[in-house]
Amino acid sequence: AVTQARPSSVAILYLGASQLNVSLGALAAGCSVYCSYDALLGAVPTNATGSGSLTLPVPNSTGLIGIKFYNQYIVLDAPANTLGLTFTNGGAGKIGG
Question: What does pTM read for this prediction?
Fold first, then answer.
């Protein structure tokens, strides 16, 4: 889920296999990229309070158990900075434990 994003905008969820910490400097002051962008999982509208969520199915496959992943939302936010984007904190997870 994304919270405290720009209200009535769009948040795009990315998934990565690698954790990063890359500052975007002057292009997006205060923003960093926290995961490799290996897969775009989808976009979700943010509501009037800047919240939104995306439900993702995980296949029932024992081959996925133990896989670690990292994720981050990018929010369309034209007035925020030169890029017109804001970036959430990064998330991390592990399938099956």
Answer: 0.92
Query: Strand 68-76 vs strand 10-16: parallel, antiparallel, or unpaired?
Result: antiparallel
Q: Which residues lie closer than 8 Å to 15 by C-beta, 6 or more apart?
A: 35, 38, 39, 41, 69, 70, 71
Nearest by Cα to 70 from 5, 14, 2, 3: 14
Position 25 confidence tier, pLDDT thresholds 50, 70, 90: very high
What is the dihedral sign for C-alpha 17, 22, 28, 30? positive
| pLDDT for 87 beyond 90 | yes
Count the neighbouring beta carbons within 10 Å of the beta carbon of residue 37: 16
Tell me the pLDDT tens digit for each residue of 44-82.
999 999 999 999 899 999 999 999 999 999 999 999 999
User: Where in the chain are the domains?
Assistant: 10-57+64-94
Q: Are 61 and 6 a contacting pair, CB within 8 Å?
A: no
Name residue 15's beta-bridge partners. 39, 71
